[in-house]
């Protein structure tokens, strides 16, 4: 899955020159070439009279992609090894040069077999896949708070927000399916079971033992996060001082679970 990139202006400027070919780290692309490239990623431009300069057009489209997963898709396309057959050294040089810019925003490009991928240099959090498709401001706010508090070493706060993240997604899915919000029970495991059943994720409904084990594991993780947030979070008087690695574990586990819940919700919507 492509990650969401947020690059600084200098990196965008270098990437512009690489795509147009004007900085020597890519081949020259004409105006029609650039239009065709970006139209592959959801744009609907056409080349004709009044078309801006190649650099201006490319920079504008990159800025529109910045902060979305489209930017990583564009990078992976322009650095696809199939475009550099017989020019492998030039390919490596282009990747190495781009990485010098990307590292300032904690990203890097890696060559993996017959493709390129964009990775975080120092991954700390699991990206919650498809979270933007289940629109809920509270959920978005909790994700931001988790990442922000991990960044400043606030373990207590990160654990509290990780619990709230699961709670918010459960409530959001419950509302999307039934049109009513979950009752505030304060019991995260109980709420999880309600939504799990709505999504037909009850372990006993599956004949495959491995799937049942995974789904039972999710239930155990939710229970564990609920207990940890009570023991270590800042909602109550703290019994244990949490380490940052515990907070990161809880946050990543929460994001993994909500990713699967949201993907399952959208899958079932498509089936219906």
Structure overview:
- The model has no long low-confidence stretch (mean pLDDT 84).
- Helices cover 58% and strands 4% of the residues.
- β1 (107-112) and β2 form a beta hairpin.
- α1 (9-20) packs antiparallel against α5 (88-102), α7 packs parallel to α8 (188-198) and α7 (155-178) packs parallel to α10 (244-271).
- It folds into 2 domains: 9-120, no CATH class; 131-271, Four Helix Bundle (Hemerythrin (Met), subunit A), CATH 1.20.120.
- The chain has helices at residues 9-20, 31-39, 54-65, 70-78, 88-102, 137-151, 155-178, 188-198, 209-232, 244-271, and strands at 107-112, 115-120.
- The protein contains 10 helices and 2 strands, in the order αααααββααααα.
- The longest helix is centred in the last third of the chain and has 28 residues, at 244-271.
- The protein has 272 residues and is mainly alpha-helical.
List the topology elements.
Blueprint: H1 9-20, H2 31-39, H3 54-65, H4 70-78, H5 88-102, E1 107-112, E2 115-120, H6 137-151, H7 155-178, H8 188-198, H9 209-232, H10 244-271
Antiparallel strand pairs: 1-2
Helix pairs in contact: 1-3, 1-5, 6-7, 6-10, 7-8, 7-9, 7-10, 8-9, 9-10
């Amino acid at each position: 899955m492509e990650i969401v990139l947020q690059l600084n202006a200098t990196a965008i400027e270098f990437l512009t020159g690489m795509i147009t070919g004007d900085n020597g780290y890519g081949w020259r692309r004409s105006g029609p070439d650039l239009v065709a490239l970006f139209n592959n990623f959801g744009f609907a431009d056409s080349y004709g009279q009044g078309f801006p300069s190649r650099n201006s057009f490319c920079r504008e489209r990159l800025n529109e992609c910045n902060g979305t997963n489209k930017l990583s898709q564009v990078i992976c396309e322009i650095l696809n090894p199939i475009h550099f057959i017989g020019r492998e050294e030039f390919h490596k040089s282009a990747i190495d040069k781009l990485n010098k810019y990307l590292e300032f925003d904690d990203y890097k490009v890696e060559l993996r077999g017959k493709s390129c991928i964009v990775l975080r240099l120092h991954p700390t959090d699991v990206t919650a896949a498809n979270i933007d498709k289940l629109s809920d401001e509270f959920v978005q706010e909790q994700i931001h708070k988790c990442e922000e508090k991990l960044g400043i070493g606030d373990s207590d706060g990160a654990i509290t927000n990780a619990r709230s993240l699961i709670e918010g997604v459960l409530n959001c899915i419950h509302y999307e399916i039934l049109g009513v919000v979950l009752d505030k029970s304060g019991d995260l495991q109980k709420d999880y079971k309600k939504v799990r059943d709505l999504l037909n994720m009850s372990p006993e409904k599956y004949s495959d033992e491995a799937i049942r084990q995974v789904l039972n594991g999710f239930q155990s993780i939710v229970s564990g996060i609920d207990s940890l947030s009570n023991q270590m979070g800042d909602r109550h008087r703290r019994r244990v001082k949490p380490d940052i690695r515990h907070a990161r574990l809880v946050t990543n586990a929460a994001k993994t679970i909500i990713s699967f819940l949201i993907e399952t919700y959208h899958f079932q919507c498509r089936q219906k």
